[in-house]
Structures are given as structure tokens and as C-alpha cells.
Amino acid sequence: AQRVTQPEKLLSVFKGAPVELKCNYSYSGSPELFWYVQYSRQRLQLLLRHISRESIKGFTADLNKGETSFHLKKPFAQEEDSAMYYCALMTTDSWGKLQFGAGTQVVVTP
Amino acid sequence: GAVVSQHPSWVICKSGTSVKIECRSLDFQATTMFWYRQFPKQSLMLMATSNEGSKATYEQGVEKDKFLINHASLTLSTLTVTSAHPEDSSFYICSASLSSPPYNEQFFGPGTRLTVL
């Protein structure tokens, strides 16, 4: 069965410090991976997806098929990055369904 | 960008009553909508996939007779919680997929907080 693991429930970092959110998945086929972000009192929104290889708000994520990982990184955290981050997996046979990880709460302190 | 709305944003009802939640794609057509449930400080759990003009597909463990889904048009899906009980209290979130590329991007609604007394 497919699975998405985000091992950290909470990440607390200082402003300006690097931040890395871990995401591992289990799926034998070709996955599509996403990072979604939910700011306080706001709806879930797409941050980035691996196929676009974009950098959004300074965040990047690289799909490592060997390690089945899709870690999210930002070199210099900002206070406005404080939010809940969810890694999500879409499989080729899921008809567009997303499977979410448990989420990581990021708190950036000044 | 694509906008999805939900109505109501919150609802309180008595045990045994039914509650309908609407999910609308405001500026795009969505052949597929998804319904999620989110418990406090937990992740989103997919309940069902709603396809316009056909029956919804429910995830394992989700009672289809309790959570009725109707997707009557390309811009509206409804979730009706029938004979609600306190354990149905939760945050219900819908999302909609674009009918045009990128097909598999989901846009999320703001959620509906349901409290059953």
C-alpha cells in the first residue's frame, strides 16, 4: 500500500536559519509528489510539485527515487513561513487522488 | 487562480439531524471533486471522490449511506451528513480538480466546521 511519512510533527527554527522538512513515500511505480502548505486560518494551497521543478517562496524539493524521498528545503527561513506543511503523493492508478502525510508544523521564531 | 468555496463555513446541529455542505468551483469547471475529513491537529483523510454525473467513490471504511455525495454539475458537489452524531463532528474540506491541464492539481476549499451536539 502507498504511504507518505513525515517524521517530524513540529519543527522550530530561528529566522534566517535553514529549514528542511522530511518526506518519505512508499510506492513501487512512478509517483507524483506535492508539498501543500496551510497558513493559520487559511485553506490548503499548493506550494510546489516535483514535476515542475520550481522554487516557490524560496522552497525547493527534489524527488529522490532511490531514497523514496521528497524533502522540502529553504536556506533561510522567514517568520511568514510558519505554517503547517503536508507532503502528498499521487499514484498513476489513483485517478487524481492525493494521499497526505501527517503534516509538519513549522514555527519560525525571530 | 482557481477558487473553491464551501458553504456553510461552520454549522452546529442536533444529533439525529442531517446537514448539507456545498462545494463550488467558482471560476472553473471540475469534473472531479474530493471530500476530506480533518480531525484536530491531524492530516486530511480522503473520504470520497465525486465525479460529475456519476456515483461517488468512497474510501474504505467510509459509510456511503451516512455521507451522501451528489455532484450534479461541473461546479457543484454536495456532502450530506445524514443522522449526524457527535462523532461526526469534524472539519470537512473539499477540493476540485481542473478539467483542463494541469489535470491533477487540486484546489481546496476553506473547509466547513461541523459540530454535532
Description:
The complex is a heterodimer of chains A (110) and B (117). With 110 residues, chain A is mainly beta. In chain A, strand 9 (83-90) and strand 10 (99-100) form a beta hairpin. Chain A has strands at 3-5, 10-14, 19-21, 24-26, 32-38, 45-49, 60-61, 72-74, 83-90, 99-100, 104-109. In chain A, strands 2, 5, 6, 9, 10 and 11 form a 6-stranded mixed sheet that branches. Chain A is globular and about 45 Å long. The mean pLDDT of chain A is 92. Chain B has strands at residues 4-7, 10-13, 19-25, 32-38, 44-51, 57-58, 67-73, 76-81, 90-97, 106-108, 112-116. In chain B, the strands form 2 sheets. In chain B, strands 2, 4, 5, 6, 9, 10 and 11 form a 7-stranded mixed sheet that branches. Chain B has a 4-stranded antiparallel sheet with strand order 1-3-8-7, with no helix packed on it. Chain B is 0% helix and 52% strand. Chain B is an all-beta fold and 117 residues long. Chain B is built from no helices and 11 strands. The N and C termini of chain B lie far apart (37 Å). Chain B is globular and about 40 Å long. The chains are: A mainly beta (110), B mainly beta (117). The A-B interface holds A 32, 36, 42-46, 49, 86, 90, 95-103 and B 4, 32, 34, 42-44, 46, 49, 93, 95, 97, 103-106, 108-111.
| Outline of chain A | globular
Mean pLDDT of chain A: 92
Helix coverage percent of residues of chain A?
under 10%
Structural class of chain A: mainly beta
How large is the radius of gyration of chain A? 13 Å
Tell me the span between the first and last alpha carbons of chain A: 41 Å
- The low-confidence parts of chain B are none
Helical fraction of chain B equals under 10%
Query: What fraction strand of chain A?
Result: 35-45%
Question: What is the number of beta strands of chain A?
Answer: 11
Q: How would a textbook summarize the main sheet of chain A? A: 6 strands, mixed
Topology order of chain A in helix (H) and strand (E) letters:
EEEEEEEEEEE
Total helical segments of chain B: 0
Query: Structural class of the helices, strands and pairings of chain B?
Result: mainly beta
Q: Please, how many helices of chain A?
A: 0
Number of strands of chain B: 11
Shape of chain B: globular
In N-to-C order, the SSE pattern of chain B is EEEEEEEEEEE
Question: Spans of chain A of 5+ residues with little confidence (pLDDT < 50)?
Answer: none
What proportion of the residues of chain B form beta strands (DSSP E)?
A: over 45%
